[in-house]
User: Fold Elongation factor 1-beta from Trogon melanurus.
Amino acid sequence: MGFGDLKSPAGLRVLNDYLADKSYIEGYVPSQADIAVFEAIAAPPPAELFHALRWYNHIKSYEKQKASLPGVKKALAKYGPADVEDTTGAATDSKDDDDIDLFGSDDEEESEEAKKLREERLAQYESKKSKKPAVVAKSSILLDVKPWDDETDMAKLEECVRSIQADGLVWGSSKLVPVGYGIKKLQIQCVVEDDKVGTDMLEERITAFEDYVQSMDVAAFNKI
Assistant:
């Protein structure tokens, strides 16, 4: 497991591919996993690796709060694709004479060149980002909606649930699942836009039908 050498173009490409369908290294919020990987990178990824650069700039904004982010920082090799060996920090026998240390140098002229390169890369990234349509993050959620007892009108319960309308919410298939003592729960699928609809909102709206609904649980949650 790992990203390879995150100080190399190859390692950054692995990171970029890894982040193509993820916002963070682990989970759905910034964590110590992101800080561990961020600190292993020598410089901002190039503009063409826009997934990695987008993530890099986002995590950089947490610099002052990084100590308070959740999770426990682990060895770098504990993160990343399972089929890639982590080699960040490994010694190399040679170094390209054209390599630029983007974190500064005793050579003032080289430092200015690095600064100029960073600015060019960020400008290229911002230009590409402004032209590229925003990707809408969506999730597929399976809900378990439980009635009060076996006398609850399940058709009416489902009608109430489906009556909930919101921008970014689409209801899908459903079925009744026995839970015992003649009671059945409603299991219903929905697709939501993550920035517009959350499980807390769904629970609040569904349990508001208190004549029919006893409780609501999330049975499955998958990013699309």
Notes: Residues 138-223 form a domain with the Alpha-Beta Plaits fold (CATH 3.30.70.60). Residues 90-108 have pLDDT under 50 and may be disordered. The radius of gyration is 24 Å. The longest helix spans residues 108-131.
